[in-house]
Amino acid sequence: MPNPLLTVLRNHAWKNKHENVTVTAESFYDVFNLWADAPAPAKNDWRPGLQGLRAVVADAERREKRIRALGGAWSLSEAATTSEVMVNTKGLNFVELGFRTENVDPAFGGNRAALCFTQCGVSVMELYQFLEARGFTLPTGGASNGQTIAGAVSTGTHGAANQLGSMQDFMLGIHLVIDGGRHVWIERKSRPVVSEAFCQRLGAELKREDDALFDAAIVSFGSFGMIHALLFEAEPVFLLERTLERHDYADAKRTFSTLDLASVGLPDLPFHYEVIVDPYHTGNGQKGAYVRSMYKRPFAAVPPETSAAVSPGDDAMAFLGGVTNIAPDIVPVIMAHVLGLKLPEKKGILGTPGQQFGPTDSRGFIMSIEIGVALPDAENAIDAVIEVAKQFPWAGFPAIRYVKASSATLAFTHFAPTTCTIEIPSAGSDRTKAAFERIWTELHRRRIVFTLHWGQCLRPAAVHFPSAYGDRVPAWQAARRTLLAPAGQRLFSSAWLEKLGLA
Amino acid sequence: MRRKQSRTPSSATRRGHSRQRASIALLCALATASLVSCYHYRVAAPQVSNQNEPISVTKWSFFWGLLQEADEDTSCACLNNGLKETTASTNLAYVLLGVVTLGTVMPLELEYSCAKPPPDGKWPNPPPAAQCGFPVLPVPSGGAPAPRESSDEPCAPTAPSSTPSGAPTSPPVVPNDPDAGDF
To answer: Which one of A7, A58, A319 has the shortest CB-CB distance to B140?
Structure first.
């Protein structure tokens, strides 16, 4: 058998896309769907990539190093990092749509033509392009498309699909490379999809004894092994009709815990409902709430929107953070201008999900947290964020969305039936960091139970875990122990995981 | 008798203070901008994804461009693929260096990332391992799939088996046959 092609950098200094996480990794590998000593396969193929991951994992295990997989470098947390072995998986971008009958379990009740096997390194943008060219799309995605599918799913990325859930919630199978040279295909017992023949073709052990292992592994940020591939059922492509209107904050506030949208002029709950709040302009007549709605429409070909000729420079966010550190009084003026420019009112813009959730042009030093709360607590939690902003202005704003509760054990969107998510993208600065601390303290003061998105900035200590996750943490750890031997648990851990008390 | 000063500043004083604060903020802003910012110029293929993390190099040009560093060879880094994005950056120090040396020394920072073929594309043949120093790690035995056989035939032209409800009848761009692929 040929050897998989790998590249490696030693003592490589790495930083994430948003420049708030840096690490120097002893070994930084790139893996590809290529052989080192054989010609490139006739078309993109998954075999060399799987063998490459197995080789890198086995080598780390032999040398007693810890290993983390890296996707789109999109996470603002340290989920993807270790100072030992990091593996860039972006080169693994094989996708296949449609399964033959012999590869599907007879009990599978879905559409085998829509089953999509995707390698870990496929970006969400690539998936949209691939699927939408074939008359399908993702059931739901994140707000932008730079993440890899494995990174997005394993950190619990979500959009605003209030009837569907987060990205992990439409996944049906996960293929993990684990310790001891093994690789396993995990599914829910209650939702069998693939056949033994499929697992034999992949060379993987099938694990389908219960639902608990899948629910724990699907949001585990690389801690159950290295994700090689995922399986989901794609949805026939559709359009989303996007409207953005400005309303007074008081009108938007009435919707926060009720999802009764009459006060913002929406007849019913759309596929995507989002409110971006200018926390410094919440008075009557100030139109400080930017309400974005998207309704599902039948598919028709539509041209893509054109982008602006001039946009903020790469260092604009670092600059903004630096200025507001020194002169916080100017934050309200700046935020009003930034939001007004970035969020112009628009009505009835049609596009496929891939067109609506396109590339983000935000670059530079950005920090962001995302808070998850139960729907009844939403109004109080958003109020807490605005209260902090008024007392301690910083260059950031809350964006509020709603997601159906996730079945993943450690999903930060686990509040049933609906989780309200409050994302707070901000210019990177010490002041922003201090503001995040104040927000967490204020949420505690108000006795609001909250979670935090695993792919965004997290609290240095997991002090909110007991109330936020209850017995979910021990259940997740127990599932991890059933899959990995102690050496394997260490292999797929990191300082970040230990800091959170999850290792 | 001295008049007792009011604790509340007059509106003129307030205006003066706020002007002073605005001036300080502006000065701070300018100082911060000059320290943290660079000038960036980018060529990008927005619909293409990158296969690797960005690679940075500093290139030097001398004597008004009469002498310059060799081209950056990306064949090993990009495995013979093209580029997804290139960013050229300069900063205050580089600009000053150019001015002080009357243009005889002009550095520029380049950052690039490599493109990857789309999921239904084909990777080019990579450069020889010996040329690029690719490491070879043993693959664990067992549980390994055989290298791909010659099952690379194109998909048969069959329409997808389901379409969105109420969708117009315009044909999808690429037909998809669930029986034609690997699985």
So the answer is: A58
Q: Which has the higher per-residue pLDDT, B26 or A431?
A: A431
**What is this structure's pTM?**
0.89
Which 8-state DSSP code applies to residue A359? -
Q: From the candidates A70, A81, A90, which should be mutated to test the interface with B, based on the most B CB atoms within 10 A?
A: A90
Contact list in B for residue A111 (CB cut-off 8 A) is: 161-162
Q: Which of B50, B123, B178 sits opposite A44 (nearest CB)?
A: B123
Distance from C-alpha of A152 to C-alpha of A146, rounded to nearest angstrom? 9
Q: Listing from the earlier edge strand, what are the strands of the sheet with A289-297?
A: A346-351, A239-247, A289-297, A272-277, A399-404, A418-427, A366-374, A451-452
Shortest CA gap A177–chain B (Å):
11
- Give the C-alpha separation, A221 to A497, whole Å: 9
**CA-based nearest residue to A69, from A48, A53, A45:** A53
Structure confidence by residue, pLDDT tens digits, A215-262: 999 999 999 999 999 999 999 999 999 999 999 999 999 999 999 999
Angle at CA of residue A129, ends A123 and A131, nearest 5°: 100
Q: Which amino acid is it at A403? A: V
Token duo for residue B173: 């761009």
ipTM above 0.85, yes or no: yes
Q: Which residue has the tokens 């493109």?
A: B115
Q: Are strands A399-404 and A85-88 parallel, antiparallel or unpaired?
A: unpaired
Phi-psi region of B127 (alpha: psi -120 to 50; beta: other; left: phi over 0): beta
From the list A59, A9, A3, the residue with the least C-alpha distance to A30 is A9
The CA distances from residue B80 to A10, B37, B75, B122, in Å, are 22, 33, 5, 12
The number of helix segments (H) and strand segments (E) in chain A equals 15, 20
What burial class does residue A424 get, using C-beta atoms within 10 Å of its C-beta: 0-12 exposed, 13-18 middle, 19+ buried?
buried
Interface of B with A in 78-107 (CB under 8 A): 79, 87
Question: A40, B24: Cβ pair inside 8 Å?
Answer: no
What is the CA B133 to chain-centroid distance, rounded? 25
Report CA-CA distances (Å) from B171 to A150, A393, B157, B161: 31, 52, 12, 12
Q: Which uninterrupted H or E stretch holds A22?
A: strand A22-35
Residue of B nearest to A100 (CA): B179
Interacting residues of A501 by C-beta distance below 8 A, sequence separation 6+: A462, A465, A473
Query: A96 near A229, Cβ under 8 Å?
Result: no
- Alpha-carbon distance B147 to A50, whole Å? 11
Where residue B11 falls among pLDDT bands split at 50, 70, 90?
Answer: low
Going by the DSSP 8-state scheme, the letter that residue B148 receives in this structure is P
Question: How is residue A3 annotated by DSSP?
Answer: P
What is the side-by-side order of every strand in the sheet holding A205-207?
Answer: A95-97, A115-119, A226-233, A171-177, A183-187, A205-207
Of the candidates A7, A34, A100, which has its C-beta nearest B178's C-beta? A100
Structure tokens at B161: 């088996």
Nearest Cα residue in chain A from B143: A203
Cβ-Cβ contacts under 8 Å between A and B: the total is 250
